[in-house]
Design goal:
- The structure is a homodimer of 247-residue chains.
- Chain A has 247 residues and is of the alpha+beta class.
- Chain A has 2 domains: 3-66, Arc Repressor Mutant, subunit A, CATH 1.10.10.10; 73-241, Chorismate lyase-like (Chorismate lyase).
- Helix content of chain A is 30%, strand content 34%.
- In chain A, the strands form 3 sheets. In chain A, strands 4-5-6-9-8-7 form a 6-stranded antiparallel β-sheet.
- In chain A, strand 5 (129-139) and strand 6 (142-152) form a beta hairpin.
- In chain A, helix 1 (3-16) packs across helix 3 (40-52) and helix 2 (29-36) packs across helix 3.
- Chain A is elongated.
- The interface between A and B is large, with 38 and 38 residues.
- Chain A binds a DNA duplex (19 and 19 nucleotides) through helix 3.
Chain lengths: 247, 247
DNA sequence: AAGTGGTCTAGACCACTAC
DNA sequence: TAGTGGTCTAGACCACTTT
């Protein structure tokens, strides 16, 4: 067993035992150096391994603290229901009501061409015109979710969806009003470490993974894809709740 | 911009540009030292940041390689259906058929007492006797999933579930045979970095997050919880696929 | 100004792999 | 045995925060 692992394990145990509590300061590097009789670099290696595990938080000039357990919101993925839309709530607003946080959204709308993947998933031709809605969704002012929604322009032409304000009930409500009766959604959930850009916009701490969800909305019968939504969620802030019928 | 970040960025770009291909060797530490005119420790810091991002792979004595993209299996979570169970397939076997891999399972069965959380989720009293089934599930010989299933002993008493071999269709099939008509499941999906123990049993590479799923199975009407299943999945190997009806 | 962590150097020895 | 990465040391200077 190497020295730095021993130190990391010792610190981890103290944290789990509650000797160092969330938010509390750890001894400084010189202090730890003396306690364990090692060089500063060895202390630093031990500490950074715990940072990568998401256990510690370092702020320069201030010291090292036990990372406070961030609040977790339960997002009910099964609540993409027609009922909620009728009441004028989109999926995110519905989640907010459920989990009790104040939602806010930044939207950017643009028109572009479908790339290979988009074309395949939406069952259109590569290069076809698509409407793109990029959103940053925040809970109580803190960014929580990035979503890029793409719809075939052939569907959205002239609809309110092409405006930044999509109206009560959101995109899905507008689609149904226009006669695109939604049949079901498929969500594919992956997990990965965030890119540097995502770390920045989602204000992620080191050692925080993200959910990467691809959602496709289907409408009509036979069902055809009408929307592709790529969603990135801060992994330390949410749990996804799915309800599955036994059939 | 610090030196080690510059080096990390330079290497990342070369990887993304395909100059270093998946599986291919990177220059050795002494070579990188010379290329960028820095000390060995600075090179090492750059490299280890890329390892933490899951981009690189280091093997001692051998060198540093670009991490090959590991195969991803799509696990259809919505296929916990009665239909599949009738055909003698449990959820994992059903996934295996779907995703085309060879499944294998190690099981350990024991009896214990419900802790606070278990008791709450199963709606029984703390300390009540529970049956515990701990499983390691592998795909093509590679561990992919850890699952600890707990059921109130009051339900399982004398059932085949108490044996290691739960029989065709698995736990859920036995429950239904015994008259516990399953109504639905609720899955709560979280993501986190793995513990050291999980890294070992799942043979995870550094920088790989895991899915942590809590599944509760409900039966009867009014529906009551009959099983609590804590599942840990290697995040680099699976995507979870959920189908959500529009209602 | 004092104290914190962040970066960087130069050099040593060790453990493992390949030849 | 040569070459790879892993650990560790001792010391320097810097950037940021608090007092």
């Amino acid at each position: 067993m190497t020295k730095w692992r021993q130190i990391a394990d010792a610190l981890r145990e103290k944290i789990e035992a509650g000797e160092y509590r969330p938010g509390q300061r750890l001894p400084t590097e010189p202090e730890l150096q003396e306690q364990y009789d090692v060089s500063r670099n060895t202390v630093r290696q031990a500490v950074s391994s715990l940072v990568a595990e998401g256990l510690l938080l370092v702020e320069r000039g201030q010291g090292t603290r036990v990372r406070p357990r961030s609040e977790v919101r339960r997002l009910a993925r099964s609540r993409l229901s027609r009922e909620e839309r009728k009441q004028g709530r989109g999926a995110f607003l519905s989640d907010a009501t459920q989990a009790g946080f104040t939602p806010s959204v930044q939207v950017r709308v643009s028109v572009g061409q479908a790339d290979t993947r988009t074309a395949e998933l939406l069952q259109i031709a590569e290069g076809d015109s698509v409407l793109r809605r990029e959103r940053i969704m925040s809970a109580d002012g803190r960014p929580m979710q990035l979503a890029t929604s793409q719809l075939p322009r052939s569907i959205t032409h002239g609809m309110q969806i092409e405006e930044e304000e999509s109206g009560p009930g959101g995109t899905y409500a507008r689609l149904e009003e226009a006669g695109h009766h939604l049949s079901h959604f498929v969500e594919e959930v992956a997990v990965r470490m965030p890119s540097a850009a995502e770390v920045e916009t989602l204000q992620l701490l080191p050692g925080t993974p993200v959910f990467a969800i691809t959602r496709i909305a289907y409408a009509g019968s036979p069902a055809k894809p009408v929307e592709l939504n790529d969603i990135v969620l801060a992994g330390d802030q949410v749990r996804l709740v799915y309800e599955i019928p036994a059939e």
